[in-house]
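Amino Acid Chain and Its Fold in Token Form
===========================================
Structure side: the spatial fold of the chain, written down as a series of whole-number tokens.
Position: the record begins directly beneath this header, with no further notes in between.
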Amino acid sequence: MIYAEAEELENMINQMRKSLILIAKETGLNSNDTLCYSQKLVKLITEYQKLQKIPTRKV
């Protein structure tokens, strides 16, 4: 279960990173759109890092 969540988050992070790069190129590094995408990316990365800290149970 955690593996699937981590994989989904990785995909979302990669997609958000690509979107952020495109928005930054179009609107500039200091635009509101770029800052919004950047904040969303940070939230996804933080969520991913928290998920990685959850100890997995040994079966």
About this structure: The radius of gyration is 14 Å. The first helix runs from residue 2 to 27.
